[in-house]
Write a structure and sequence with these properties.
Helix content is 34%, strand content 26%. The protein is of the alpha+beta class and 486 residues long. The chain has one domain (3-88, 100-413, 456-485): tRNA-splicing ligase RtcB (Alpha-Beta Complex), CATH 3.90.1860.10. Helix 4 crosses helix 12 and helix 10 runs antiparallel to helix 12.
């Protein structure tokens, strides 16, 4: 197959797993989808390809508009979308980041084995569910005033360290060391701060979760050793973001952009791509507010980590240090950051938008933490609660192919509404426990139905394509033991 036709859009095969939509109808660059034919069939089922074409209309977009192997329909940008927009002549788009700013994942490794946990899964999942806040609305590990929120927005993980919720190594093993220096708490509205003040240290709802997992496969022994991973070891995966605060930041700036930059909006094929021109007052304000929300999300995941360590201490009767509960890595997958990349043979500063895509810097890159610089940045790819997840490392081709990015998960193939019509939450939960010894606890059966394994693409195939393209190399695979959700 050399072309692929999908509802009036024709993709041309550039090489294995690389499909291109040529420039047309106002597109400033071609669009590329990185996928196998099987994944492309699923990606083409919704509006993903049209949204990718729309993204290619943005001013200052460089090289290609990109869709990762887990792509699906999103808001403005497709989920799985990556775009490098010139930081001087381009723009920045809240829709290219999403409402859940710095939704991301972190993995905590341990020296426990599956045998240490087997038979205690129910006790562990009950304790985690009782102690890690989840679900819609308020409730967090820390409920505080606006002063605390502003300190978190300003200093990120440094605040968590100062307050005793983190250890120094947690910052060392976090993207950007858990602090965006460009944050501007003053650019975050009072309404956003009010929404965030009672949600610090909470999972929220939807596809967010905390999952205890065991390492089932190691594919690159040297890299796994550098990451502190070995077969049969227990790890904890945490997936959440900036909660109501980040959602409000996105909402606020979409409205401001629509009012102040309607001329740019009128040139775009979809108002959900609303963008502020680079160098404008609103672009700078949004960037500062977004970076502040990024800091908030890192602290949110850190407080959940702090509470998780405490739960493990009570359940297993040992200090978390004795159990080796160290942060492997924390990486964002809803973000836009100023980064320097080579474009047409020259180094250019870009706003790199990763909307449901993960930074995947290769070995030797100066922004990879010192502990991992020789092997490459850890990349964490969660699957569904009935399938495996993966740890990858940034691949050698990522900088040339994807602005240093790869997929962020399995990617949905079914809407939440459709999932609730197709699945019954209690049945899903019982099947996971009876067939796979996976213990799930959630606020409602509807939440479990929305996140049933059948709702997602095959994460093995997503990761296989990433590995084959050299943008994110397989290191280890994990499998769920127990899972809590909102």
């Amino acid at each position: 197959m050399t072309t692929f036709d999908a509802d009036g859009i024709t993709l041309e095969k550039v090489r294995e797993y690389v499909w291109e939509i040529p420039r047309e109808d106002g597109m400033r660059v071609p669009a590329r989808v990185l996928a196998s034919e099987a994944l492309l069939e699923q990606i083409s089922d919704d509006k993903t390809l049209q949204q990718l074409k729309n993204t290619a209309h943005l001013p200052g977009i460089s090289e290609h508009a990109l869709c990762m192997p887990d792509g699906h329909q999103g808001y403005g940008f497709p989920v799985g979308g990556v775009a490098g927009l010139d930081a001087e002549e381009g723009c920045i788009s809240p829709g290219g980041v999403g409402y859940d700013i710095n939704c991301g994942v972190r993995m905590v490794r341990t020296n426990l084995t599956y045998d240490d946990v087997a038979g205690r899964e129910e006790e562990l999942v009950d304790a985690l569910f009782a102690n890690v806040p989840s679900g819609l609305g308020g409730g967090g590990v820390v409920e505080s005033g606006i002063d605390t929120v502003e300190a978190i927005l300003d200093r990120g993980m440094e605040w968590a360290l100062e307050e005793g919720y983190a250890v120094p190594a947690d910052l060392d093993h976090c993207e950007d060391e858990g602090v965006r220096e460009d944050s501007d708490p003053a650019a975050v509205s009072q309404k956003a701060k009010d929404r965030g003040k009672n949600q610090i240290g909470s999972l929220g709802s939807g596809n967010h979760f905390l999952e205890v997992q065991r390492v089932t496969d190691v594919f690159r022994e040297d890299v796994a050793e550098a990451y502190g991973l070995a077969e049969d070891r227990i790890v904890v995966l945490i997936h959440c973001g900036s909660r109501g605060l980040g959602h409000q930041v996105c909402t606020d700036y979409l409205r401001k952009i629509e009012k102040r930059h309607g001329d740019l909006l009128a040139e775009l094929p979809d108002k959900e791509l609303a963008a502020a021109p680079a160098g404008s007052e609103l672009a700078e304000e949004y960037y500062g507010a977004m970076c502040a929300a990024i800091n908030f999300a890192w602290v949110n995941r850190q407080l959940i980590t702090h509470r998780t360590r405490a739960v493990f201490e009570r359940v297993f009767g040992r200090d978390h240090e004795e159990m080796g509960m160290e942060l492997l890595y924390d990486v964002a997958h809803n973000i836009a950051k100023k980064e320097v990349h080579e474009v047409d043979g020259e180094e250019r500063e870009l706003y790199v938008h990763r909307k449901g895509a993960t930074r995947a810097f290769p070995a030797g890159h100066p922004e990879v933490p010192a502990a991992y610089r020789e092997v490459g940045q850890p990349v964490i790819i969660p699957g569904s609660m009935g399938a495996g997840s993966y740890v990858l490392r940034g691949g050698s081709e990522s900088m040339a192919e994807t602005f240093g990015s790869t997929a962020h998960g399995a990617g949905r193939v079914m809407s939440r509404t459709q999932a609730k019509n197709e699945f019954w939450g209690e049945d899903v939960r019982d099947d996971l426990q009876d067939q796979d010894r996976i213990y799930v606890k959630a606020q409602s059966g509807a939440t479990v139905a929305e996140e049933a394994p059948g709702v997602y693409k095959d994460v093995d195939e997503v990761v296989r394509v990433s590995d084959a393209l050299g943008i994110g190399d397989r290191v280890a695979r994990t499998f769920p033991v127990c899972n809590i959700k909102g």
